[in-house]
Amino acid sequence: MTSLGGGADRRAWSELVSEIVDCRRCPRLVAHRERVARTKRASFLSWTYWGRPLPGFGDPRARLVIVGLAPAAHGGNRTGRIFTGDRSGDWLFRALHRVSFANQPTSVARDDGLALRDCYITAAVRCAPPGNRPTPREFMNCRPYLERELVLLRSAQVVVALGHVAMDVFLRAWSALGHDVPRPRPAFRHGATARLPEITLIASYHPSRRNTSTGRLTEPMFDAVFRTARSILDGMP
């Protein structure tokens, strides 16, 4: 994470990060993330895996907030930073770099020099789940962390949800914080925008291997999402 700001916000961010990293609320997730960290993947045997929950990453004064699903077992769970060290992260940071939300197009380790500008990345669930499928209880256990981040992200104007599940979790958290959510809720469709009273929500397919290898999501499609976010923040129609 970049500068946390000052005073009460700095303390609040630091406390939140500590609570997330130390969290053991979900026994199934704890067992899985720690087992993966012990056994490792053959290509990463030299790594000391992070093996803990992941806090968000980026600019606490960001106007753009990105909500993903959960860390990858050999990506964030290995490197200790969200969307770092896996193919989904490769797609995300290339796209962010092309519209100047990131200072570089790669994200391979916590100390690789990556910095986000006016952008913050978080997730619906903070531990790598078996089969990339968190349970309803695990989503519920993690949602308070997202809610607290959203309270602290006071400058947020655009939210990009990566996948329909992330979009649903965000809308539940947004509503729980007392914000108005349209009824019926916005339907998930890649590239669709929904103007909520306080923010603009943009839906995107998740850059998972399943979506990118099948062509369901292409780089031009993904780039268009972040060009839209940039245009909104720059005050363009």
What integer value in Å does the Rg equal?
17 Å
What is the count of helical runs? 8
**Level of helix content?**
25-40%
At the fourth level of CATH, the homologous superfamily is Uracil-DNA glycosylase-like domain
Q: List the secondary-structure elements in sequence, H or E.
A: HHEEHHEHEHEEHH
The share of residues in extended strands comes to: 5-15%
The unreliable regions are none
Structural class: alpha/beta
General description of the model:
This protein has one domain: Uracil-DNA glycosylase-like domain (Uracil-DNA Glycosylase, subunit E). The model has no long low-confidence stretch (mean pLDDT 95). The longest helix has 17 residues, at 136-152. It is globular. Strands 1-3-2-4-6-5 form a 6-stranded mixed β-sheet. α1 runs antiparallel to α5 and α5 packs across α6 (164-176). It has 8 helices and 6 strands, in the order ααββααβαβαββαα. The protein is α/β, with parallel strands linked by helices and 237 residues long.
Summarize the helices and strands and which ones pair or pack.
Blueprint: H1 7-21, H2 27-39, E1 57-58, E2 64-68, H3 76-79, H4 87-98, E3 119-123, H5 136-152, E4 158-162, H6 164-176, E5 193-195, E6 200-204, H7 209-213, H8 219-233
Parallel strand pairs: 2-3, 2-4, 4-6
Antiparallel strand pairs: 1-3, 5-6
Helix pairs in contact: 1-5, 4-8, 5-6
List the main descriptive attributes of the protein structure presented here.
11% strand, single chain, alpha/beta, Uracil-DNA Glycosylase, subunit E, six-stranded mixed beta sheet, 237 residues, 8 helices, globular
